[in-house]
Amino acid sequence: MNTTQQQITTLQAELAAAKQQIADLEMINDLYVKAIDSSNIGLWDWDIVTHEVYFSDVYKTMLGYQPEELANSFETWRMLIHPDDLELVTAQFQAYLAAEIPVYEIEHRLKAKDGSWRWIIARAEITDRAADGKPTRMSGTHTDNTTQHLAQDQLRRLNTDLESLNLERSLALQRSTNLLQMMLTHMPILIYELDQDGTILFADGRALHTMGVNPTEVTGRSILDLLGDENTITYEHHVAALQGNEQHFMTQLGAVTMETWLTPVRDDFDVVRRVIGVAIDVSERAKAEEEHLLLTEQIIQMQRAAIRELSTPLIPIVAGVVIMPLIGAIDTRRATAVLETLLEGVAQHNAHAAILDITGVQTVDTQVANALIQAAQAVRLLGAQVILTGIQPQIAHTLVTLGVNLGGIITRSTLQEGIAYAVRMRRDQASAA
What we know:
Structural class: alpha+beta
CATH superfamily of the largest domain: PAS domain
Helix content: 40-55%
């Protein structure tokens, strides 16, 4: 009896210990499950032999489902996985089960209840094997990595956009550099940069070479020292630019005419730190403008001569007789031109009679009348006679009122009578000779 009693007591103690151990294990398991649930990690278990599958509540809720809405089956998993990921995930499963890869860890997509795709990091390991070593059970976890994955996608897109932008900027910079170099090489320009003290930081361009200057000869030198007192205007423009004032001016540097723009460059505190200068060799343009001005002046002089000839026309009609028909108003300047033309014509044509026809003249003042008298006197000094024709009644009245003495001037009422008189006078002179 004592032995039996002892065995019972021992069994009871072992049973109590086993119950306590079970309770402890259940508590640990409960804590483990709670820890897993609180970390938002889904659990799954797959019986490889029976194909029974277990999905934890978190596994389902992270996809937006209630636990009872998803069946614990392999088909549920196949239904949820993205079609584009199924082949890769299946291959990873098989490779891990065949011990071709050391661990099973893959990121793939599962379809959520709202139709969106969640990025899941799946990790698993073989938890049981048969006597022959073949895997019989596999357990794993699902972690929702959607937020991080989308952030990484966005970061990749941003990096791609940034690389594209950098490439565009690099290409644009290269194009600008090439364009600038082409301009400097082929166009008659000079581009230079000055610091706030007037030191040349950069200078290049075909115009610089045209002046026989190499960029290395001026870089690092003061623009003010280079200009000195020889070009005061250009010097003052550069001083003004360094003081913050934009400048535009023309200057002559040796045989080269330059049109220059100076632009101050300021920092965030509105302090002038740089001055950019752009100068264009306009020597050809200046030469063309000078030639144009000269040609214009010549044209003006020719026009004046033509106008003078039209305003004081002198027409030879027969040998020794010239006519000057006058039309319009006669002022002092035109009266002087009449005198000059008349004298030149009488001398040139060796005339003995010069007919001044004023049929087209409406008014005559004292100065004009005196000019006509002076013309007659001057013509007589050349051995010729002035015949005044076409005096209008109002002009005759004015001459009488002014008391103008027309002595020495032969007058006839019409041009025809004046011509007849001049021809007759010419004939009489010829007969007398």
